[in-house]
Structures are given as structure tokens and as C-alpha cells.
Specification:
heterodimer, A: mainly alpha, B: mainly alpha, disordered C terminus
Chain lengths: ~160, ~500
């Protein structure tokens, strides 16, 4: 039975073989005798070999499988929600603009990580979101002259 | 050398450099003190603030964060029994028991003073060794650089405890990142996979920020809602009053532990991408092995705290030697510094000191002064740290992620870097879950282009590949790379046999 390392090795092996195949399409330059595909082929070949080693080692390890350690409960649902919130934030930055997107993102993550209870909880969420957005905007845009993204939809 | 150092110190005492150094040190102490916020994450958060500064101002801030973080991390280790950062894990072994025995002030100040001594011992080597090493590295041709980078990658991969294959594969994956998008020799597009933002290649800073920040934050998010919070574990009424004369005597009456463990920290710092997390454990283990009473280690004795804290601060100096002499980051924090140098158009490597003497000696001066500033911060505000270590993660994490986003965006005022951040944030977390070590990956990302450029340059100068082996320095470096992989293989084999034997022993009983 293939384990976690084996699956990881298979994914890396597949990806490196696909990329290796793509390097065969790279055209050599008349100026430089060693083409742009020379080094990528070495790297991807080595990666594929190492991935194959991982798969083999996993298959061999499965034969002498050790007893499983006690599982620690982990909150993967929260991790998924955090990634989803960040993905949405990055996706909407260009459309809503830095100030609106950041305000919504910080409020959402703060509420996700510490569920607000009652009006006081929601006030905390609002204060954290407003203070973070304002502080980052003032420091970067006003003091450090970093032009933060403006929203295509909001022009703000 | 002393003239330049004197000028560096005088320059660093000007307010325009001293202010970022002091603010960096304060942020570092605070970041280091908060469990779960690593120094790497703190320096990543500080990075975007340095873009608008002069190079030396930005580097001074980062050095302040580095030194402050290494020292601040011991506070949570001693008071909560939770390491503030990976390089303070061994401090927990003796610091927390000492604090629980009713001497929290002694535990903390032993750590702080040992950090200061270890750091300043490291400074002597940093200043004395960097220039000669850089001069030696000037003799290197592309063959030697190629071999040096291969040695660095193989050493880091070989030090991975779980699996050598994973360590090497992780380094190779880092190199794969550098072949996507752009050919560094001709500057032509290559393997863009049809993705427009890959056309210029993948900038390494957003990769580094994404991988480290998300791997750390999401690993902490997984555990949220379970164990008791740090706030519940902390007694805010605890007294940190202590006799500094007694603490100094505690340290200076154990010169062997201080010197040997500082040396260990330095050597580990010089080795690429290993960092303080290995240094403090190894130093604590060495102090125990050389002790006349090893059985007392872990019960709250000064030697354990001195060993761990002197080594992790000396480790900072070692990491700076490697980046300033060879352009290879000693750990993740110096990798971020390397990125900051690149942003300012400064090439690190053997020519760095001769071409940027003012910046190099300014960095030495910042490193020395950072210790005095950190000491002053802690003398004035150690009590405040009791409050800081319990800042809620629900506030910290969104703020850190927003600053990471701004940091990535500000690199080129383009969303492409933010997309890279997101992609490598997910990849970094996935790598941690699958057990791929991050250090070889990041080193691969940083060195991949350089490996390619030097390989091609060497082969275009002379197509004979045997020159990599027959040129003495290059051959020695490649030999060392093979030896380090062989040693790692042997160590893994021995560890497996021991575990198998232990398993059989358990079964017998």
C-alpha cells in the first residue's frame, strides 16, 4: 500500500516528467552553444530520479510498517477557510482596491479565528479591521510612497 | 580594518541609522517573545518597510530584528515553557524548570546575558573572518562557485532528519522554480506554461515570504481551539527582579560552556541554511556531554540556558559571515536580507565587502550595537514582555498576512508577485504536511539561477566537464558534497537500525 511519501513522490515524478517533455521543445540559440533546455533537463532529470527514490523508499517502508502514533486533532476546516479567505482577498484586491479588500479580509479572518460574541465581539472585529487597514495605508502609501492597488470597480 | 569599523560605528550612531536599528531590535524582541511568531516571519513583516529606506538603514533594521528576535525568544521559553522560536527550544529545557522553581528572573537574565556574550563573541569572528574569506572566494571561477553551491545544497539536504531523499528532492524542487519563466543566461522566456505572470521568471522574495509565512501560520491555525492558551498559562504577577552581578558571575564562572557553545553556534551559522534551531540543540547536548553532572540538565541549571542562548546568538554572526563572504544565506533570515540587497541593486558575494565597504562595515557596526540596544530594551521593558507574549493570534495572523501581501506587492508594484505569494503559500503548507523540509527548497530557489549561470559559464569557457573535478578547490568542494551525502545516508541507516532494535526490544518485554 502506497503511503503519503509515495503519493508525494508520484506527484513530483509526474510533474518533473511533464516539464522535462516541455524542455524538448525549447529551441537552441545560434549565439550560445548550450541551449536553454540544457540545465532544466539536468534539474528535472535529477528531480524525477529523487522522486522515484521517494516512491521506492515508501513502498519498502510500508513492508516494515511501524505502529501508528496517536493522532492529534487538527482543525483543517479552519485552515481551508483561511486559505479561501486569502484567495478571495488576493482575487478581489485588483477589483475592490487595497482599502476595501483589506478591511473585509482582516474583519473576516479576525472573526474566523475568534468568533465574535455579542455587540462587543463585533465591535472588536470592526476596530481591528479599521485600525489595521488605516495603519498599513498611512504607513505605506503616505510615508513610504508605495502606491497600493486601486480598485477597478470602486476606483478607491 | 579597524579604521573602517570605527567609521562604521560612528556612522551607525547617527540617528538616521540608529533609529531603524533600534526599532528593528524592538520589533525583533517582541516578535521573538510571541510564541509562534518566528524571527523569519518578523523579518518578513519588516521587509516592506525597508524598501523606502537607504540600503544600510534597511539592513540595520533587519539586523536589529535578527539580534532582538534571537534574544527575545527566550522569554516565552522561560516563562511559558513554549519556545518563542525554534532556536530557543533548548532554552525551555532548563529555563522553564528554573522559573518554576521560583527563579524566573534568574532564568530570563541568564539567557539575556548569555545571548549578549555569545553574540559579541560571534562579532569578533564576523569582523575578523569575513574579509579574508571573501578574499579567498575571489580566487573562485565558475567551476568553484558551481561546486560550492552544490555543496551548500547537499549539506542542507543531508541534515534533514526525516529522509535524505525528501531533503534532496526539496532542494531540487527549489531549483525547478528557477527554471520556470526565464533563462538567466540569455534572458529569454522558457517554460512559462502559458501563464502571463511567469514570463519574467519567479522572483524569490514572494516565494520565500509565501512558503515561510503560510507554513508557520497555517500550522498554528490547525492547532487553534484545542490546547490552553498562553494567557491561561502565564502568571502576570511573577517577579523578574534579579541580582545582575550574580547572573554575570553565573555565566563568567562557566567560561568553557560559554566559549564552546558560542563556537558551535558560529560554525552552524556558517553552514548554509541550517540556522539557530540546530545550533541551540547541539550546543545544549554538547554542554551536557562535557558536564560533570549531566543528570542535572533539564532540571533548571544555568549551564543549559547559557549553552542554548550563547549558541543561538553566535549563530547570527556565523550566518552573516556566509552571506557577506560567499553570498549564500546562512538561514532564512539572511535569505530575506539577500532579497533586500537585491531589491536595492546590491550584489552579495565575495566582491560585496570590497565594493560596498561602507555598507559591510556598517552591518558589522549594526550587529555590535544591536546587542547593546537589545540589552537596554530588556532592562527597561522586560516586564512588558509578560503582556506581549499573550497577544491574540486572531489579531496577529491577519495583520501579518496583510503585511506579507503588501511586501510582495511593493517589490514591483505589481499583482504578479502577490499571485506568486498565494501559490507558494499553498505550496509551502502542502510541503510541510507532506514532510518536505523547507530549508533545502528555499536554498534551491535562491541558488538555482546561480548554479545554472556558473555551470553554463564554465562549460562555455572550457567544454571539458572533468575540470569540475580536476581543479583543486572545485574538486575538494564536490568531494565534500559527496561525503556529506554519504555521511547523511550512513546516519539515516544507523538511526533506522537503532529504531528497529528498540522496536524489537519493546516487543520482547
Amino acid at each position: 500500500m502506497i503511503g503519503r511519501d509515495g503519493w508525494a513522490g508520484l506527484v513530483v515524478l509526474a510533474a518533473s516528467l511533464v516539464l522535462f517533455a516541455l524542455t524538448l521543445r525549447l529551441e537552441d540559440s545560434p549565439l550560445v552553444p548550450i541551449g536553454p533546455g540544457f540545465y532544466p533537463r539536468i534539474v528535472l532529470g535529477a528531480t524525477a530520479l529523487l522522486a522515484a527514490w521517494m516512491v521506492l523508499a515508501d513502498l519498502l517502508a510500508a513492508r516494515r510498517a511501524a505502529p501508528r502514533a496517536a493522532r492529534v486533532r487538527r482543525n483543517y476546516a479552519l485552515v481551508w477557510l483561511m486559505f479561501a479567505a486569502f484567495g478571495l482577498y488576493v482575487g478581489t484586491l485588483a477589483y475592490l482596491g487595497f482599502r476595501i479588500a483589506t478591511l473585509l479580509y482582516v474583519a473576516a479572518v479576525n472573526a474566523l479565528l475568534d468568533r465574535p460574541r455579542g455587540a462587543r465581539g463585533w465591535a472588536r472585529v470592526a476596530v481591528v479591521a479599521l485600525a489595521t487597514t488605516a495603519a498599513v495605508y498611512v504607513v505605506f502609501e503616505r510615508e513610504l510612497s508605495v502606491l497600493l492597488p486601486r480598485g477597478r470597480w470602486t476606483d478607491f | 580594518m579597524f579604521e573602517l569599523l570605527g567609521a562604521g560605528l560612528a556612522g551607525m550612531l547617527q540617528l538616521k541609522y540608529l533609529a531603524p536599528l533600534a526599532i528593528g531590535a524592538l520589533v525583533g524582541v517582541v516578535g521573538g517573545a510571541i510564541p509562534g511568531i518566528t524571527i523569519t516571519m518578523t523579518v518578513i513583516v519588516v521587509l516592506p518597510f525597508t524598501f523606502g529606506l537607504e540600503p544600510l538603514q534597511g539592513l540595520a533594521a533587519m539586523i536589529g530584528v535578527y539580534v532582538g528576535g534571537e534574544t527575545g525568544g527566550l522569554i516565552a521559553s522561560c516563562l511559558l515553557g513554549i519556545p518563542g522560536k525554534p532556536s530557543a527550544v533548548a532554552t525551555t529545557f532548563d529555563g522553564f524548570p528554573m522559573a518554576r522553581k521560583g527563579e524566573p528572573g534568574r532564568a530570563i537574565w541568564l539567557g539575556i546575558w548569555a545571548s549578549i556574550f555569545g553574540g559579541l563573541l560571534g562579532a569578533i569572528v564576523l569582523i575578523a573572518a569575513t574579509e579574508p574569506l571573501a578574499r579567498f572566494a575571489l580566487q573562485f571561477g565558475p567551476w568553484e562557485y558551481f561546486s560550492l553551491f552544490i555543496l551548500a545544497l547537499s549539506m542542507v539536504a543531508g541534515l534533514v532528519e526525516s529522509s535524505l531523499a525528501k531533503g534532496l528532492a526539496s532542494g531540487a524542487l527549489g531549483c525547478v522554480v528557477t527554471i520556470l519563466g526565464n533563462d538567466p543566461v540569455l534572458g529569454r522566456e522558457r517554460l512559462t506554461l502559458g501563464i502571463p505572470w511567469l514570463e519574467g521568471g519567479i522572483p524569490f522574495l514572494p516565494v520565500l515570504i509565501g512558503v515561510f509565512a503560510f507554513a508557520q501560520i497555517m500550522s498554528d491555525v490547525e492547532k487553534m481551539g484545542g490546547a490552553a492558551s498562553a494567557e491561561q498559562a502565564l502568571d502576570r504577577g511573577v517577579s523578574l527582579a534579579v541580582s545582575h552581578a550574580r547572573v554575570l558571575w553565573d555565566i563568567l564562572s562557566r567560561p568553557f560552556v560559554l566559549l564552546w557553545c558560542s563556537f558551535i553556534g558560529l560554525v552552524i551559522g556558517v553552514l548554509p541554511a541550517i540556522g539557530g534551531s540546530a545550533a541551540n540543540m547541539l550546543a545544549w547536548d554538547q554542554a551536557k556531554k562535557f558536564s560533570r553532572h549531566p543528570e542535572k540538565f533539564g532540571t533548571g541549571i544555568p549551564e543549559g540556558i547559557i549553552a542554548s542562548e550563547s549558541s543561538n546568538n553566535a549563530n547570527v554572526a556565523g550566518s552573516l559571515v556566509t552571506i557577506m563572504a560567499f553570498g549564500i544565506p546562512g538561514d532564512a533570515v539572511t535569505a530575506v536580507m539577500l532579497g533586500a540587497l537585491t531589491v536595492h541593486g546590491i550584489q552579495s558575494g565575495p566582491l560585496f565587502i570590497s565594493q560596498n565597504a561602507q555598507i559591510a562595515y556598517g552591518m558589522f557596526a549594526a550587529y555590535i550595537l544591536a546587542h547593546a540596544i537589545v540589552l537596554a530594551i530588556l532592562l527597561l521593558g522586560v516586564r512588558w514582555m509578560l503582556r506581549i507574549v499573550v497577544v491574540p493570534r486572531s489579531i496577529l495572523f491577519p495583520v501579518v498576512l496583510v503585511l506579507c501581501t503588501v511586501g510582495a506587492y511593493a517589490l514591483g508594484n505589481a499583482m504578479a508577485s502577490v499571485y506568486v505569494l498565494l501559490v507558494f503559500g499553498v505550496a509551502g503548507y502542502a510541503m510541510v504536511k507532506v514532510g518536505f523540509p523547507l530549508a533545502p527548497f528555499i536554498l534551491g530557489v535562491i541558488l538555482g539561477d546561480q548554479i545554472e549561470v556558473n555551470l553554463i559559464r564554465a562549460l562555455m569557457t572550457n567544454p571539458d566537464p572533468w575540470l569540475f573535478l580536476t581543479r583543486p578547490i572545485s574538486g575538494l568542494l564536490l568531494g565534500a558534497a559527496v561525503l556529506s551525502i554519504a555521511a547523511a545516508l550512513w546516519q539515516h541507516h544507523r538511526q533506522r537500525r537503532r529504531m528497529a532494535a528498540a522496536g524489537a526490544g519493546d516487543a520482547d518485554f
